[in-house]
Structures are given as C-alpha cells and as structure tokens.
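TICKET #2291
ISSUE: user wants both folds in one file
ATTACHMENT 1:
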Amino acid sequence: MNWRAAVVLAASLAANGHGAESRQERGKRVVYEALQALGGDAFLHMQDRVEFGRAYSFYREQLSGLSVAKIYTRYITAAPGQLGIRERDSFGKVDARSNDLAESSAQLFTEEGAWEITFRGVRPLPDERYANFKDSVLRNIFYILRQRLNEPGLTFYAQDGDFYEHRPVEIVDITDADNRTVTVYFDQLNKLPVKQSFRRRNPEFKDFDTETSVFAKYHEVSGIKWPQTIHRERNGEKIFEMYSDSVQINKNLTDNLFTLPVNAKMLPKAK
C-alpha cells in the first residue's frame, strides 16, 4: 500500500469513528478541533499580538515593495458583523542600536476608519481599501475562531476531504448571517488551518475576485500556535507575503499605537 492510499484509509477510519455525522456537524467539529489545536482557551483569551519580519508586496507577480514590518493587533469587543480589532502596520528599517523597527510609515485600521501615517502627515485611506480590509478580517479564519464563533447565523458545511501539498485536508465552508462565505482547508493530521479562499465582487469590472491565503511554519508562543509565513494571492497572482522572525502575544499594547498622532497635518483622502 503506497503512502497516499494509507493516508486515505486512515482518514476514512477516523471519519467512521465519528459515526454518521451530517455535513454541518462534521464542519463544526473540524472547526472546533482547529481551535483546540491552535491553543484552545489560550487562543480565545489572546488580547493582542506583535508580528515582526519581512513583508513583500507584488503587482502582476513582480515584486513592487519590500520592507521590514511590525504588525500590531489588538482585539476589541464588537457587535456581530462589525470590526473587532485595531491594527497598526508599521514599516521601516531595523535600528542598529536597538535592533527594533525604526518606523518610517504606518497604516492604521480601527473600527472608525483607516489612515496612512508618514512624515508628511495623516492621509485617510480610500473607502474601498478600508471596506476590503474589513471584509478580509471578517472572513479570516483566525479572526473567526477568536471573535465570531458565537455569532448568530454562523454556519459550517463540510465538503469532501482532499489533499493539499501532499497532506490530507478537511475542507469547510463557513458562512455568516450576512452571507459572507470563506472556504478553509484544515490539515487532517495536526488540525491546523493551512489555506483559505473566498470570492469578493470587483466594483470596477462587476465580476468576482478570488482571494486566497496560505498559512505555514506554525510556532507555539504563550501556548498559542501561530503561522510565521503568510502568503496571499488574488486570482492566482501573488499580492503579499509575510515572513515573521518573531511573534509575541499579550504584550499589553497601549492606546497610543492605535490613535492618530496629536497635531499631525491632515491630508486629503487618498484616491
């Protein structure tokens, strides 16, 4: 028996051990197994996170931006369907004296809006950019597991199992009360999310874009497993990669990270 057949047989025996599950029951089980694999109660009580590493942006598969990045995230209480995080994406160079990031620019996202912060001042980001950020967060599997599992109307539907990168995966469609759906691939062996995909309407061309994220190189930090490599594509083309050198959790991030600088010059909204 070759390795592929052996894995399929093992997965089949495991599935039979759960009895005659419905698609909905199986989907919910897989999602909650992923929550436990990521850290369970520790994951649910994660208050903030700092990811430090290299960020690459791409345009038509060509590298268009490279920077050292520090991503600050803090979870907040929010109503269903509303943004429940504040995020600051800081970019710059490593300070040789402190070995920390010397910020040259940043993007700030809160429940109230989104801005770019530079030495020139503060510029509100376009409405579409903020709407896409919010939509991406609401469909992000880690955000769903941390913030949205108890939302009314959230449903789970298991597809047939498959293989991804030569490993067996469970595939689950997660849909919320506003009919937003994300399809998530979970490793059958370690239960962790390895890929997600969703479709978003393109307002310019009146069709749909497919957004895909791939998660790899999980490390355990403070009892929580978090991917240190994140790769994003749109319609099959690379748009972003993040390689974290370090991830810190529950660092008691302060409000000043997520508020606009005092007396900063306010610039016209970006187009």
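ATTACHMENT 2:
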Amino acid sequence: MTTAQQNWKKLCKILDEAEAYSRSVGKLNFDLECTAPEEGMEQAGEDMAILGRRIFSLLHSKRYVALLTALKNDGEGLSDRQKRTVVQLYRRYENEKNVSPALAYRFDRATARAYTAWIRAKKASDFSLFSPAFSRVVDLTRQMILLRDKKFPTPYDALLDDYEPGGSIPQLDAFFASLKARILPLIKRIAEEGRPIRTDFLSRPVPIPKQEAFSRCLLDMEGLRRTALVLATTEHPFTDHYGPHDVRVTTHYYENNFVSNIFSTLHEGGHALFMQNEPEEYYADHVADGMTSAMHECVSRFFENIVGRSEAFVHYLYPTFRKLGGKTFSDVSETELYLAVNESTPGLNRCDSDELTYPIHVLIRYELEKAFVNGDLAIGDIPAAWNAKYKEYLGVDVPNDAEGCLQDVHWTGSYGYFPSYALGNAYGAQILRTMEKEFDVFAAVGRGDLKKVGDWLTEKVFSIASLCDPDEWIRKITGEPLNVGYYLDYLETKFKKIYQLP
C-alpha cells in the first residue's frame, strides 16, 4: 500500500521541476522590468508565456492531480508543513482546474503585453494606449473566474479571496468605512488648523550615486544579507525572490526627490527581509512564500513608516543625512527633517504619499477595481472616474494620466491586491502594540538596532506566516483578531502631535 510520504516524495519531484521553471519566469520578468530594451519586451513576454505553459502542464497533469488528491484525502504521516503545502496547492488547483492550457497561455501573453503597453502609455501620458491591453487582461480574468466550481457573489469577491482567504467586498467595505470615518476628518483638520511645516529642502538635488550608496546602507541596517541580495532600478519598484538566497530589490531614484528613494528602499527592504528569513526547511517542503499579500505588506509598510518615519529613526539617520548632502542640508535641523518626512498633504502619487493620506489612495483604487472588475465601470471611463475620486476624497486635481490612473503597474495583470496595502498597515500597527510589550522598540530604532526588530519579526511573524491564513496568523502573534482601531489610534496620536492639534 502506498503511504502518504511516498506520494509526497513523488509530488515533490513534480514541484521541484515546476518551481525551477517558475524561478526562470521570475528572472525573465525581473529582466523585463529592469534591463530589457523596449524592443526586446515582446520577446521576453513570449518566453515567459512559453515557460508558463510548461508550468501549467506540470501542475495539471493526471499524475500531479492524482497525487495531490490522494494527499488531500489521506495525509496521515505528513508533517504540519507538508499538510499546509497540500492545502495551498489544492486551493490553487481548484481555482485553475477548468482553465485550458490555451486560455492560461493567452492570459500570460496578455499580461506581458499589458506591461509593455503600460510603459508606453505612461511615457506618453495617454491612457488610450493602455486601454485595449488592459481590457484584454480584465476580460480574460473574468473568463477564468467564471470557470471555477466555487462561485462567489461577484468576480471581485473571488479575487479578494485569492489574495486574502476569507476576504470579501462586505468585509473590505466595512474596513474602509472605518478608515474614512476617522482619517478624512483628520486630513481636513490638518489642512485647516495644522501648523505649517517646512519642506523646501526636500526638493534639493542629491546625486544618484549618493542615493544608491545610501540605499545600500538602509538595506544593511534592515539586516539583509548582501551576498543574497541584488539592488536594481525600475519604473515601479518591487521586490522578488528565487529562493532565500536570491532576493531582488528595486527602487527608483529622483535627483530632486531623495526621500522617495529612502522610503521606497525601506519598503522593499521589508519585503526582502521577509523573503530572506523564512525558515529554510519551508523551501524544501514547498510551503515557503505561502503568506498572503497583506502579511507581506505588513512588514514592508512597518519598516517604511512605523520605523522609517519615526522620530527615533530620523534621530539615528540625521548625521548620515547631513553627510549625504554636505552643505546642501546644512541649514536643516533634525526636528525639521522629522516633520518634513511626515508632512501630510493630499497629493497625486500613492507611492510618495504621506502615512496619513496613503490609505485613501488605496481606497480609491479599491473602489475603482471593484467597479471595473464587476463590469460596473467601463475601462475607457477609468481616467474620469479616477480624477473624480481624487477630487472628492483628497481635493486634488489630476493634471494628466501619467500622474493619475497610469501611475501604478498593478493593473497590467492583477486585481484585488491593492487592499492588501491598507490591511498591511493595520496589521503592522497591531503587531507594534504587541512588540512594545516585550521591548522598547523605538529605543532600539534610535540606536540603529533594526536587527532587534528584525529578529523579533523573524521569530514571531515570519516563522508562521506561510503556515496560517490571515486570521489565525494575527491571532497567534497578538492574541486577537485584526483590530483596525490600533492603526487609527496610531495615526491620530502621531499626526495630532506633529500638527499640534488638541
């Protein structure tokens, strides 16, 4: 009689091959987004789709399905990690089992073409250049959702459940309603009553080589291993990895906006820290990287904002900041730097937005995604809808498509991810509350000892993320379910103090 462990070993042989192809696709995509010339992007997309077709065939073969089904029905003798792998793989199989190889290939080609179209459209600031490719990806996404056995109230509900199991429109509507109820009034109060903050020096030029050197210092501070790390540039920063020993961080340098790179690097470094510090045995059992998007964004946003924009971290960085700029910043005090990097002013760009207005940028994208995925908003009407929501929520006028609906890369291939950023912020604030019970977090940050923070996250957060769905994960870390109140209290306390509001 075949045992579960024997079936597991047979399954792993298939997974080993599929993951080798998957890593190759990831490296091709990294090349596409970081180094490929414009004329070479089409070929890169074709190569990725061909490899993707091989992955699809491996993970839909009769042998693979038989082994996976057998393990799902009888996992006696498997470890907890192996059982979790089976659960994750079967969830994916259930979503994709009715998708034909031809449809999967068309989707992969469509997303690669959409990325190329987005690059061109953003350069030209013309949404119409992106719209046809965008529409094609949305249409194919809906087709694949309709093929699923498991039915959801709407296509967008299905996508939300993909990114955050248990996620739904009602759940997120309530979550974002809580944010709007307390954040929007505070934004208005700051505009009307807040003290002025000096920011003129933030646009002073800092040479790109100096910014790059500083980025590497930030990644070192976060505790990343340089021998397992690459730092590159791209149009829209991201981080990817191909096992724990090959992590790729990207950023984008602006000579007259040096702080953009600082917080982009801290953010992407947070993702990289997660990737480098999952237990090695998780990779052997094919369970690594099984956490949800919000779990990952929790850590990146934690380092970008809770740590990076704190008084303690600015205090630690201030001497380096002065050295970085030489005479450029000789007239800037430590307090002025702290206030400037935390200035809250409604603006156009999500990635460069302040900590308080950021979730409103995510809210706008959530509302638009919900509408166009479910067919309530035509793709061609997105620019006007985008501009109207920016005016309604943030009071800003959008001057062009590049600074508006073309600023994010996400809609070239995925929908339902954006809420993860806001959920990640909320998880981070709740985790901070728990962390502070065990040691003085900001005393450590003020000494530049981010390793202490990273070690705590490795033990309490990274070690269990791939083994849990979101609710179980946050309960194990903090002892309670997600409580958005911690996040809202954190924002109100911080920004009332910054703007001297009662």
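RESOLUTION: both attachments delivered.
EXTRA DETAIL ON ATTACHMENT 2: Strands lie at 229-233, 239-241, 247-251.
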